[in-house]
Every structure is written in C-alpha cells, then in structure tokens.
Automatic annotation (TrEMBL):
PANTHER family: BLL7424 PROTEIN, DUF1501 DOMAIN-CONTAINING PROTEIN. This is DUF1501 domain-containing protein. It comes from Nocardioides imazamoxiresistens. The lineage of its organism: Bacteria, Bacillati, Actinomycetota, Actinomycetes, Propionibacteriales. Pfam families: DUF1501 (PF07394). InterPro entries: DUF1501, TAT_signal.
C-alpha cells in the first residue's frame, strides 16, 4: 500500500505561485500526521468519529457537489456586466460583445461558450451570483484557497467547512465525504470526520485482491494482520477494508453514462463522470468535491475566437451539461456549487490576460436552485490599474443557503462566527 508521490501538474498556468503549487506539498505534513490508509489509487482519512459501514446509512439523500475552479477564474468574462460601460473601456481587446451574450438581462449575460448549459438556465436549474468572495482581498493562490476552504477566518484549526458539515449529520462513515481527483484530501474535507479520496471508482480496491486472488485470501490476510492491532495505522486499514466493501454498489454501477450523456474527454469531464457514478451507486455520499484547473489567465486569456477562457468555459459547460443529463431524475437531489479562490482585475493587461483580483462569480445548479437569473449587488466598475470587482456578497452566504436548505444543518456550526446574509438563490 502506498501513496502515489507524483505532484499535481499545473497545466498551462503561468502565475509563478500557481505553477509551483502542489497539493502534495500543501498536504504532505497533514497526511503524515494522521490516520491514513491508502489502497489502490484511493486514500481514506480516518478519525475517531468513524462509525462503521455505510450500508447502515439511508440512501437517496441530498448530495452537494463542490466544483473548485482552481487558479482564479475571471468572473467578468464568465458573467459579463454588459451594462457597465467601464467593462468595455477597461478591456478593449478581450471584452465579450453584448450582442454575443446568452441569457442577457438588463445588466448581465453569459459568455457564449456556456451554450450547452442554456437549457438548464432556461429551465430554472442554473443561477449565477456575482460580486462574491472573501471578506477581505487575498491575492495569493495558496492562502486564498486555504481560507476559502477552511471558511473560518481567524481560526487556527485545521478543519474544512465540508468536514464540519459532515459533523452535523446523524451518521458518520468514510464515504459520506468523497473527493474525486488526485487522491489527496482537499482542505475543505479535512477535519475530524472520516472521508475518502479517489482518482476514480476503479481505484477503490484492495491491492492484490484481483483475478489472481481466486479464494479471497488477500482481504482475509489483511484482516487477520490488522483486525486486532493497536498500531497507529490499524484504524485506517480497518476503515479502508470497510470502504472497499461499502463501495461495491458503485463498482456494480455501469461505467457508461446514462440518458445519452456525452462527456468531454477532458479531466473535468472524466472526473464528473466518476462523480455521477458514485452518486448513482447510492452509497450514502453527501458531499463530493472535484477540481477544474488552469484558470490562471495572466496571458492569452483571449477572445471569442481564441485563448484559454473560451476553452475553459466550454469545457466547464459541456461537462456540467453531461453530468446532469447523466444523472437524470437522480439529479433532483443533487446541488452543485462552482467557485474559485478569487477573481481577476477589471483592466486587461498587455498580454491579452488579466491579473489577480478580488470579487468573482459563483454558479449554483441543480436541486433547489431558483435559477434562470442573476443574483448579487453590483458596484459600478472603476478603470484604474489595480481596480477590482468589489465583493458585496460573502461567498459563505451562498454556501449557507445550501447548508441550511438542502441539509437542514446549522450554519453556525458549519461557518462559526459568521452571520449569513439572504441571497435567495435557493
């Protein structure tokens, strides 16, 4: 049993800080200091709160999928404030023309690459909340990601908001919280509750328990070795064995997308296909995280005919459209929130790109969403070299509505010391 030491590739990101970031580097110390068991390509982070088999947990519950747009996406390109004249003055080369926008209202419109999601918008299942963000500007990728995912400013506790949400649920098993991606525990899921991370559903296996193990000797031998052990890693190994057993319904679920869904061949498309399979397997997972990287567009953010933004938004839209098509009626209990660590500056730079900023846009889709409209309070833009989109809605207020209305959880327990404002998106 081992953890793959390969760092996460930063893709085409050009920011020095973002390009040098490795989630292995971020989390290595935490992993080495906790009860962690690795098996196949998956990792279980155990905790005293682990209560056994997921089989005892009721299926069919609500699910929250949190999609992190890593690298700080440009919300001004995703949801364009076409009625604000400063937007066009500050971005003479990369601004999106108003007549090209989708779902345009008096102030905003969607980038045309969102077209695959237009049916969800029209059906009221997709909404956008603009001018969201942290309580104060933070333009460091590393520290902003940590702050967004801890969601408890000023606290020194190593604990993510999704782990705190899991702590408010009656059951406690390691498949309630799942990260699909690089096999490492994201900050949002770190904490007292047991969680599981995986590259894909096929990785949730016990190494050696394959076609050559015809009589099931490998699981028996591991159980015999660790079953009564008091060694520090024993709890992790026992939990891992239980997770492999509890994951059986997902392994039995077809790998083929349902309802005619066709996912992009991108990393995000593959990851969301895995997420759908986990949800359709109905193993009691309540929160699932997934990432989309390469949003750090200092250079070549581009226009409607070329550049990174067009491709990133197109991949995001096509992947999400396929995901909800794949889920079918199961999607009636799945809410997805997409957010980024911070936004970009108002003014374009000399390289057809934008630099680190402050306020941004959040997307909310699926069950319970009052969609087909834009939310948030807009402050007119200013065209100076360091001007930002000003934050008028703390991002936790959006998340708090999901926590309260989809899970019936205490927002005070999930976001300590924070009093959420009413957004109305759910």
């Amino acid at each position: 049993m081992s953890i793959d030491p390969t760092p996460v590739a930063p893709g085409a990101a050009c920011c020095g800080e973002y390009a040098s970031m490795s989630r292995r580097g971020v989390l290595r110390g935490a992993l080495l200091g906790s009860a962690v068991a690795a098996f196949g390509g998956a990792v279980v982070r155990t905790a005293p709160a682990y209560a056994g088999s997921a089989a005892a947990a009721a299926g069919g519950g609500n699910v929250l999928v949190v999609l992190s747009l890593r690298g700080a996406c440009d919300g001004l390109s995703m949801v364009v404030p076409h009625a604000d004249p400063v937007y066009y003055r500050a971005r003479p080369r990369i601004a999106v023309a108003a007549d090209q926008l989708l779902a345009r209202d008096a102030m905003f419109g969607l980038h045309p690459s969102f077209r695959p999601l237009l049916p969800m918008w029209t059906a009221g299942r997709l909404a956008a909340v603009h001018a969201t963000g942290l309580p104060a500007p933070n333009r460091s990728h590393f520290s902003a990601m940590e702050e967004v995912e801890d969601a408890s400013p000023g606290s020194s506790a190593r604990e993510g908001w999704l782990n705190r949400l899991l702590g408010t649920t009656p059951s406690s098993h390691a498949l309630e919280g799942v990260a699909v991606g690089d096999g490492r525990v994201p900050t949002s899921l770190w904490g007292a509750q047991a969680v599981t991370t995986m590259r894909d559903p096929g990785s949730v296996t016990l190494a050696g328990a394959d076609q050559w193990d015809k009589h099931g000797g490998r699981p028996r031998s591991v159980s015999t070795l660790w079953g009564a052990s008091q060694a520090p890693l024993a709890d992790g190994v026992r939990t891992a064995l239980q997770v492999v057993d509890d994951f059986a319904p997902v392994r039995a679920t077809s790998t083929a997308p349902a309802n005619g869904a066709v996912y992009p061949t991108s990393e995000l498309g593959k990851a969301l296909a895995h997420v759908s399979r986990v949800i359709r397997g109905d193993i009691g997972s309540q929160v699932i995280t997934v990432d989309q990287g390469e949003w750090d567009t200092h250079t070549d953010q581009g226009t409607l005919t070329w550049g990174a933004m067009r491709g990133n938004i197109g991949d995001l839209a096509s992947s999400l459209a396929a995901f909800f098509t794949d889920l079918g009626t199961t999607g009636d209990r799945v809410t997805l929130v997409a957010l980024s660590e911070f936004g970009r500056r108002v003014r374009e730079n000399a390289n057809y790109g934008t630099d680190h900023g402050y306020g941004n846009v959040m997307l909310v889709a699926g069950a319970g969403v009052k969609g087909g409209r834009y939310y948030g309070t807009w402050t007119p833009l200013v065209d100076t070299p360091d001007s930002d989109v000003l934050v008028t809605t703390d991002y936790r207020s959006v998340l708090a509505e999901v926590v309260r209305k989809r899970f019936g959880a205490s927002t005070a327990a999930v976001f300590p010391g924070f009093s959420p404002a009413t957004v109305g998106v759910l």
